Structure formats: structure tokens, C-alpha cells
Amino acid sequence: MGTKQIGVVFYSKTGATRLLAQHISEGIQSVGANAQIFEIESQSIIAGRYQNTPLFEQLTKCDALIFGCPTYMGSPAAQFKAFMDASSDCYVQKAWQNKLAAGFTSGGSQNGEQQQTLLAMFALACQHGMLWAGLDVSQFSDDLGLNRTGSSLGLVASPEPGDPQLVATNDLQTAFYFGQRIAKLAG
């Protein structure tokens, strides 16, 4: 079947979500799969609608998709939501049906309702008939010490305590593991 193609599609404003996407991609590649990074660009949103047909064509060729964006006011960033809405053509064509899906988000605090963002991504995956994979580790239940937030639905990241400009080291390590997990599940 060849090398699995894992698409990591995300929006990042400050760079934190981009950093997570990079660590996820490194995890994917560490187990022999191919990571393809796709960043949602604000300039591709015209009159409120995300428009990038070539991106959707590339995503359709992937074996798995990992969605990512920051959490703003308890929900996905508007730029990522525009991407979600624009995926409706793929929905009609069942282009993502039976693909593996997962999600990650970042926020300015440890609990800024980031789970709501992951739930929106989960609902998107379900709408498309995708198979959702969550995070299977917790610093409280295994010896890896990963996933300090305890989120099972997907990866949640926040700043390093005392330094609001940095993503917590544990979250970056968890992102690498998350990439490995999704690549292994994709087969």
C-alpha cells in the first residue's frame, strides 16, 4: 500500500498551533509515515468563505487528517471554522469517508473550553464519516508522563507556567507522541 500520507491541517495566529503541528509531523515521520502540513491562510477567506480548491484536493489524497487550531472564546478560531464550512463539497462527495481523523488545539490557559474546539472537530469528522482517534495517554495513568491536561478527545496545549509565550514542554512531547499514534493507527 505504500507509505501512509497523514495530513496536518491547521490555522495558527501566534505560532503556538504551528509549533504543535510541527511536533506532530515529526512524530508522524519518526514511525515511517509521510506528514503533509497544510496551513489555513487568512487571505484564502473571501467574503467569509474559505476558498482553496487545491488544498481540499490534496487533503482528499491523505490517508488520515489531523485538524488543529487555537481555541478562541471557547470555540475554534473563525479562520478554521471557515475551512470546516468549506469542506462541505468533500462531504457531498464522501471524499473523506472512512479516513482516520484526530484533532489538536491550543489556548491561553489550561482550561479555556478547549474541549469545545475538539468537539467541533470531532463533529466535523463525524459529518464526513471519518473515524476519530483520541489521545490514549495521561500523565496520571501511564509511565510516559505525557498529556498533562488529561484530554482524551485530542491534544490540548497551553503556555508553559510562568511564560505565556511558550507552549509547555510536556505539550510538545505529547504532540510528538500524538503524531506517532495517528500514523501507527493509519497503518
Automatic annotation (TrEMBL):
Q: Which InterPro entries match?
A: Flavodoxin/NO_synth, Flavodoxin_CS, Flavoprotein-like_sf, FMN_Rdtase-like_dom
What is the name attached to this protein's record? Multimeric flavodoxin WrbA
Q: In what residue span(s) does the Flavodoxin-like domain sit?
A: 6-177
Q: Name one GO molecular function term.
A: NAD(P)H dehydrogenase (quinone) activity
Could you name the Gene Ontology cellular component terms for this entry? membrane
**Keyword Flavoprotein, does the record have it?**
yes
Q: What is the lineage of its organism?
A: Bacteria, Pseudomonadati, Pseudomonadota, Gammaproteobacteria, Vibrionales
Keywords (A to Z) from UniProt: Flavoprotein, FMN
Coiled coil regions in record? none
Q: Which domain of life is it from?
A: Bacteria
Cofactor(s) it depends on: FMN
